[in-house]
Amino acid sequence: MINLEWYRTFKAIYKMGTLTGAAEALYISQPGVSLHLSSLEAYVGYKLFDRTSRKMIPTERAKVLFNAINEPLTKLEIVEKTFQKSTEKHAPTISIGMCFETFQTTLEPFVSSLDFNLIISFGDYPEMLDQLEKGILDLIITPKKGTSLLIDHEPFSSEKIILVGGKDVEVSEFKKHLKANDKMVLETWLKDQKWYGTTGDMEHLFQFWSLNFDKKPDFRPNYIVPNLNSIVRCLFGGSGLAVIPDLLCQKEIDEGKIQLIWEGEKELINTLYFGTRKKSIHQQEINQIKELFKQVMPK
C-alpha cells in the first residue's frame, strides 16, 4: 500500500525544485525526503526526477503524476486541517505561512508562550496566497500582494536588500570605484569575489544586480547553502559576499561580525504584508500573532 506522505513529498520536490527546499517546506530532514522519493519511484516503477548539481528536473512522467495528484492532495490537506486532532481540547489551531528565515528570526522564540495551537508552513509566496484563499492557511507573511478580493493585505514593516560581506573583506578598492562611479570596474571587482547563495532562490541577487547594473548577474555563487540565515553564519568566517535582507543581518552588522558593503545606488526596499482572509473565526489569535511581529520588526 502506498504512503500518502510519499505523494506530499513528491509534490514539495516538484514545487521547490530541490531536496533541501522540499525538506524545509515540509519541516523534515533531507534524508527523509530522499527516502520518500526513492520509495515512490520504486513503487511506480520509473524515475521521477533527473538530478543535477543545482536542481531536480521533473521527468515527463513526473509532470503527468503531479497533474494527477496536485488537486486531490490540496483537498486532502483541507480535510486534514479541518479534522485535525488537537492536543488541547478547546484550543484553536492557527496555520501560518512564511519563509523559513522569517520564522527563525521573529516568531520562533515566542511559540512556547502561545495559548493556542500553531502550524507553521514554508513555501513560495504564490502557493501561500493560494492556500490562504482556500482556507488551508489563516495568516501569511509576504512581500508580495495577491489580486484576490477575498484577501486583505496589511503593510506592517519593510526590508532593505543590501550587499554584505565578511568582516575581513578589504573594501577600500570597492569604495574607490564606487566614489568614481565606475560601474564597469565596480562590477568586475564584485564578480572577482567569493559569493554565497541559497538553494533554488537567487531572487534577491537578481533584483539587486538588475536595479544597480541594468542587467542580470552573469555569474553564479561559489557556495550554495540551505537558507539566508546560513549565509549570515558562514560570513562569520570573515570572507565572501552576499545580497540579503537587512532584517536578517542588522544585529550581526551592529556587532561587527559582518560588514555592510553597499546599499546600492538605487535602494531595493520590499514592503512586508500580513495576508489574511477578510473573514476569520480566529481573528483574536491572528491579531496576537500580528502584535508579536510588530514588536520585533521595524515599522
UniProtKB/TrEMBL annotation:
Keywords, in A-Z order: DNA-binding, Transcription, Transcription regulation
Record flagged with keyword Cell membrane: no
InterPro entries hit by this protein: LysR_HTH_N (IPR000847), LysR_subst-bd (IPR005119), WH-like_DNA-bd_sf (IPR036388), WH_DNA-bd_sf (IPR036390)
Gene3D superfamilies, per the entry: Periplasmic binding protein-like II, Winged helix-like DNA-binding domain superfamily/Winged helix DNA-binding domain
Domain HTH lysR-type span(s) in chain numbering: 2-59
Tagged with keyword DNA repair: no
GO molecular function: DNA-binding transcription factor activity; transcription cis-regulatory region binding
Superkingdom in the source lineage: Bacteria
PANTHER family hit by this protein: HTH-TYPE TRANSCRIPTIONAL ACTIVATOR BAUR, HTH-TYPE TRANSCRIPTIONAL REGULATOR
Family label: Belongs to the LysR transcriptional regulatory family.
Descriptive protein name: LysR family transcriptional regulator
Lineage: Bacteria, Pseudomonadati, Bacteroidota, Flavobacteriia, Flavobacteriales
